[in-house]
Amino acid sequence: MLVAAGIFPHPPVLVPEVAGRRSADLDGMRTNCERAVTRLFDAGPDLLVVLGGDERTACHGSDVRGTLLPHGVDMTFGDGGVRLPLSLTIGRWLLGSRTELVSTEFRSVGWGTAPADCLELGERLAGLAPRVALMVLGDGSACRTERSPGFLDPDAVPLDDHVAEALRGGDTAALAALDPKAAERLLVAGRPTWQVLAGAAEGRSPEGELLDYQAPYGVGYFVASWRFDAPADR
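Structure for Catalytic LigB subunit of aromatic ring-opening dioxygenase, as requested:
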């Protein structure tokens, strides 16, 4: 059963050593990420599942390592044999040494995974242990401004605002209804992981809190925390 969820961005610049002289731009977001991670552990999970987007859907297990070498910084997190994609590498960095506190596994979901399959995966993840916490990595649109990686699309900010309100209100239906074609056009990396979260929280009434929402580099970044007080209604 899902007992807590945290939603995080996964840009490499979240790591200060990658951001360099612009590190201060995201100091507030890093603080809010730390708050959201702490809440995951405060929920007393038996299992923490770290979920991020990638080319394919896979369970990477717990014997993992993430590296930022492709982003110009010689930093590695974890000492396992399985190399993580970027989204999960940032998740591993956010966790630090806390992976020793609870059983942890890392899973990726393919960027193009259909919503129904995302929801089904979420249900399966929520049933992996009596108390499951979910760390969800996903960025918003990269088409918010003329300087964004995907240039400017007028639909980008409204979609990100919609996601922000869904995360604030614990609105699983709104996340489940996100259009994968629109998300692909607007370069919304978080669509599949947010829909897995919606599936994991099906039948629940999460108490959501949006801790941060900004776009300092023309990409939407969210930090949110979901807590669950009532048992699942199955």
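The chain is about 35% helix and 25% strand.
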